[in-house]
Write a sequence for this structure.
């Protein structure tokens, strides 16, 4: 059922939506695209669930806790369905749980995976049309049933058996789930970026690596890259709109493979990085997340050669033990990882390095854990994101024996964080007395301090004379005068 554009506008006039986002930067950016698409369709975004006609949750399923949060949120607002509000679940939990969501949260009307967001306007129009029809014509909603429609990138729309509705409130359900084989990127011209100075550009979606613990290959589908022309066009458009910082995004951003039609115009990831850094008006380029297996020396060379590329690489290691890396199916050894670290340390610029670590993977012994602890000091990370292993549906690690008890995972997590804190207390000190350029992110009025971010992605808060108070989004020089485990304090150089 294809609706005309005019009909779509008619249906959504005056409609409001509320969108809450869980999870990573990819989800934050997907939400910006969903918001842009809905605004274009005539919807208006509101600040609270109570004000909204349509309530959307863009979900994360990377760890069990993140997934539970969504179901708690849905339960909290369940009673609002009686007042005619519609609930939709987008993103990774939608993709992973599919129609099972309707069983756990029967008031949900829409379930949509990330590769189907381009179909969102059509799905919403169908939802409204079916809803209107079902309340007008009882025969359309047989007996105590509802209407369920499946749409998506890989399947033709089809009506499915009705279920779980009441006579007074027939439920209409729409499901847009993606085939893992989709080669569609979620490109839209209607991105509503929330920050006027700094914005994301997705360059690659999905993942083909299948680490033993991870749901991403199942929830975000196979790896697919945009063309470098389309990425550069978006970067130029952002620069024209006044953005000065661009962050290139991908589950494994450096696994990028230019899909340009003409092979001679294809760019490697490092070449694309440099080209984005050379777009007039762009002052900073970041990229995340890099996978160690695909991290080439050319990336370090690009950072050395192009000053707008930020002095920061996020390179998740997950474990310092080869035995655990093997069981995780990470495709590199500790030695290969350290080789990449050595490339960065020998760069001309001072590249900050951050990482992700999982503790308590099945079979991780005390000895394995000690190897992770000593890797922290060996690398001297500028920041570490630590996670307790969380068993996830469909993943190969579910079948592994030697589960680590939760109390032991917590102990290891605590020990790791404490060790890293001590490392950072020492390493942040070395910036005292240096002058750093920061992008001004805002002001902490209570402390009368401006919030700044350095090229290395460190927070450098600072004071400035009233007469030269800087605006958000500008770049100023700041002398660091004090250090803390996770931030620096300084004064603006005037
Ligand atoms: N593609 C990136 C890579 O390979 O390093 C990581 C992307 S993943 C969305 C972000 C982080 O979540 C991972 O680096 C890992 O530390 C963590 N993570 C993923 N699955 C997890 C699980 N089942 N339990 C705990 N942490 C997990
Ligand atoms: Fe998940 Fe591994 Fe893919 Fe990263 S590389 S998204 S951890 S499967």
């Amino acid at each position: 059922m294809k609706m005309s554009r005019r009909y779509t506008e008619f249906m959504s006039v005056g409609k409001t939506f509320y969108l809450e986002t869980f999870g990573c930067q990819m989800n934050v950016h997907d939400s910006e695209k969903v918001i842009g698409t809905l605004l274009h369709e005539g919807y208006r975004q509101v600040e609270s669930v109570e004000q909204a006609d349509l309530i959307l949750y863009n979900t994360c399923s990377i760890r069990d806790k993140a997934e539970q949060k969504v179901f708690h949120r849905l339960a909290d607002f369940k009673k609002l369905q009686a007042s005619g509000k519609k609930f939709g679940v987008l993103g990774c939990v939608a993709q992973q749980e599919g129609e099972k969501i309707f069983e756990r949260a029967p008031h949900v009307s829409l379930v949509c995976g990330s590769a189907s967001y381009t179909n969102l306007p059509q799905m919403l129009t169908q939802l409204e049309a079916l809803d209107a029809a079902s309340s007008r014509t009882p025969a359309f909603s047989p007996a105590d049933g509802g209407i369920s429609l499946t749409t998506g990138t890989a399947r033709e729309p089809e009506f499915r058996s009705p279920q779980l509705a009441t006579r007074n409130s027939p439920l209409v359900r729409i499901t847009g789930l993606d085939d893992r084989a989709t080669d569609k990127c979620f490109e839209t011209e209607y991105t509503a970026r929330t920050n006027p100075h700094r914005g994301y550009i997705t360059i690659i979606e999905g993942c083909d690596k299948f680490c033993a613990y991870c749901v991403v290959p199942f929830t975000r589908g196979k790896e697919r890259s945009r063309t470098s022309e389309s990425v550069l066009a978006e970067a130029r458009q952002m620069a024209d709109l006044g953005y000065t910082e661009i962050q290139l995004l991908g589950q494994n951003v450096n696994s990028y493979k230019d899909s340009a039609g003409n092979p001679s115009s294809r760019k490697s990831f490092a070449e694309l990085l440099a080209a984005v850094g050379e777009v007039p008006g762009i002052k900073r380029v970041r990229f995340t997340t890099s996978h160690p297996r695909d991290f080439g020396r050319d990336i370090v060379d690009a950072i050395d050669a192009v000053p707008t590329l930020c002095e920061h690489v996020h390179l998740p290691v997950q474990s310092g033990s080869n035995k655990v890396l093997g069981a995780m199916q990470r495709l590199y050894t500790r030695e290969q990882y350290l080789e990449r670290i050595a490339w960065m340390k020998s760069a001309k610029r001072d590249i900050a390095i951050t990482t992700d670590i999982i503790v308590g993977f099945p079979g991780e012994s005390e000895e394995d854990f000690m190897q992770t602890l000593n890797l922290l000091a060996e690398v001297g990370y500028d920041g570490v994101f630590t996670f307790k292993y969380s068993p996830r549906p469909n993943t190969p690690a579910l079948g592994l024996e030697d589960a680590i008890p939760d109390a032991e995972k917590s102990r290891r997590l605590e020990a790791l964080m404490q060790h890293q804190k001590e490392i950072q207390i020492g390493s942040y000190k070395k910036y005292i007395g240096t002058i750093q350029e920061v992008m001004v992110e805002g002001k902490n009025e209570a402390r009368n301090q401006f919030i700044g971010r350095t090229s290395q992605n460190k927070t450098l808060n600072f004071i400035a004379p009233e007469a030269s108070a800087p605006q958000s989004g500008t770049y100023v020089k700041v002398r660091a005068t004090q250090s803390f485990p996770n931030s620096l304090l300084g004064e603006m150089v005037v």
Notes: The mean pLDDT is 88. The CA atoms of residues 386 and 417 lie 7 Å apart. The two ends are 63 Å apart (CA to CA). The longest strand covers residues 435-444.
